[in-house]
Design a protein that fits this description.
The protein folds into 3 domains: about 5-80 and about 165-325, no CATH class; about 80-160, Zincin-like, CATH 3.30.2010.10; about 380-515, no CATH class. It has about 525 residues and is of the alpha+beta class. It is about 55% helix and about 15% strand. It has a 7-stranded antiparallel sheet with strand order 8-9-10-11-14-13-12. It is elongated.
């Protein structure tokens, strides 16, 4: 195992996947032949018909289903799924999204294929999948993986795209849906009232249950073949990704991070029918990660531990080096800031500028001495038209973790486009120190006490006057950002922007982080 290269793995997995897929077509055709004879047995009490004629009809049905599986119908289903997840094309003003687009372009050049269409799914979970000419990457992966890891994940998906694995999976999915439909139909027939005399006789004699048992067995066998093909495709894509990037350790650390953070996925994110398309199953399953014959037969992905260990062997590395890479922290700076009588830090100057609670008059100190924060620190950024809706201070176009936002130089409040908020939540989480989290969670508990006394109303938490949008001059709505942190925010429906008061965004991040940590 330790001496295997990706060339050895690619040859063995490619051969196994091809053999398994070629077995699926005759398996389905012969299953249809057996189904015809079984139906004749139920209707007439004995099987009948010319075998070669039945085989020809069954082969024709299989070919029709094969071409249906290869048609654009399955691609439309993928696009509907992405629309359901509110996936969007990359925002090229966001430097992280632009980097992801560049990585996809690089991998397309490396694979010598046409560049696939990129979509970003706005969820915190780290994951990615490819189908047909589409690659979808979650916001969590864009934000939480470094460039090498993101490149390895995209290379894995590019390998699926290069080999046309989604077409194979579409064909198999069509066959499986047909078997499942026939199974459901037979159950309905066996459990319902039938006017057809032949079926009534078959049901009365108990022969109908032979059909149910047969279709159940065919369904199990079809799923076994499908799982086996899917596992080989995943192993082959891992090997091809190493071939494209020459960096097995990057793919190993990406798989480690994705598997570690699967708990952040939403229930709607984990579609059972589409989870085999993802680089790692979106939900934690004892079947996928277990050992033994049952897991080996029915899991759609090889166990993560096995995939990571194989990649580490190829990199001549070990788990210790992998953990060092994964646990690598942001650079520690030499700047401190006073908040509620406590000095928090250390931060780099860039991290300090990304604190929404940093307002005019705050005391900051570093190697060069102690300073009082004011708008002058933001003069290097472009000033916008309009004034802060909260304090009337100057507004500046700045970037928070590569996301364009508008920040007040006086009170620290920020205006963010609604579709960019998830990016900030995904990227600012790592900036919070233990001291910040403690203060924010204390603030969260105070708000909950207010809500218990006065009712779940955003005006009870923030009784200040309604704000006016600085861009359109219309009154802003006050609402809770979500019902986890109960943080009131102001929203302009016309402009699609949300105003976060000083520190509110960090409160939301701390609250969500605490909820996630309960399930780890």
């Amino acid at each position: 195992m330790k001496n295997k290269t990706f060339w050895d793995i690619e040859r063995s997995r490619k051969r196994a996947a091809r053999v398994l897929f070629l077995l699926f077509f005759p398996f389905f055709t012969l299953s249809l032949v057996g189904l015809f004879y079984l139906v004749m047995f139920i209707l007439a009490g004995r099987p009948g018909g010319n075998f070669w004629e039945i085989l020809a009809v069954a082969s024709a049905i299989s070919l029709v289903l094969y071409f249906i599986g290869k048609s654009g119908a399955n691609r439309r289903r993928i696009l509907e799924y992405l629309a359901f997840l509110r996936a969007q094309e990359p925002d090229l003003q966001d430097l992280k999204h632009k980097q992801t687009q560049n990585v996809v372009r690089e991998m397309a050049i490396a694979a010598s294929v046409k560049e696939p269409k990129l979509y970003i799914i706005p969820v915190l979970a780290k994951n990615a999948f490819s189908a047909f000419d589409i690659i979808a990457v979650t916001e969590g992966a864009v934000s939480g993986l470094d460039r090498d890891e993101l490149q390895a994940v995209v290379a894995h998906e590019m390998a699926h795209y290069l080999r046309g694995d989604s077409y194979y999976k579409g064909i198999i999915s069509t066959f499986l849906m047909t078997v499942t439909s026939l199974f459901g139909l037979s159950m309905a027939v066996s459990g319902g009232r039938q006017e057809d005399r032949g079926f009534r006789r078959g049901l009365a004699s108990g022969r109908m249950w032979f059909l149910v048992a047969y279709l159940y067995l065919v369904q199990i066998m079809a799923r076994l073949l499908n799982a086996a093909i899917s596992r080989k495709m995943e192993e082959l894509a891992d090997a091809r990704a190493v071939q494209f990037t020459r960096n097995p350790l990057a793919l190993a650390s990406a798989l480690y991070k994705i598997a570690r953070d699967r708990v952040r996925g939403l229930a709607s994110f984990a579609s059972p029918a589409l989870s085999p398309l993802f680089i790692v199953p979106p939900t934690v399953s004892s079947l996928d990660e277990g050992k033994g014959l049952f897991s080996n037969l029915f899991s759609s992905h090889p166990p993560i531990n096995k995939r990571i260990q194989l990649l580490l062997n190829m990199a001549h590395s070990d788990l210790g080096r992998l953990r060092d890479r994964v646990l690598r922290r942001r650079p520690r700076g030499d700047w401190w800031v006073e908040m509620e009588g406590k000095w928090l830090g250390p931060f780099t100057l860039e991290q300090l500028m990304e604190k929404t609670w940093l307002r005019e008059g705050a005391r900051i100190k570093g190697k060069e001495g102690e300073f009082v924060f004011g708008p002058g620190f933001l003069q290097k950024f472009k000033k916008t038209q309009g004034q802060c809706p909260r304090c009337g201070g100057p507004l500046f176009n700045v970037r928070y973790e590569f996301v364009p936002v508008v920040k007040c130089g006086r009170c620290g409040g920020i205006l963010v486009r609604e579709d960019r908020v998830m990016k900030l939540i995904a990227r600012l989480e790592e900036l919070l120190t233990k001291g910040e989290e403690k203060l924010y969670l204390e603030d969260l508990e105070k708000k909950k006490r207010v809500l218990l006394e006065k009712g779940a109303n955003p005006w009870a938490v923030d009784p200040s006057e309604p704000l006016v949008c600085p861009f359109c001059g219309k009154p802003m709505e006050r609402r809770f950002f979500n019902f986890v942190t109960y943080t009131p925010v102001d929203y302009c429906r016309k402009c699609g922007v949300i105003f976060f008061d000083s520190g509110e965004l960090e409160i939301i991040i701390s609250g969500l982080h605490r909820i996630v940590s309960l399930y780890k």
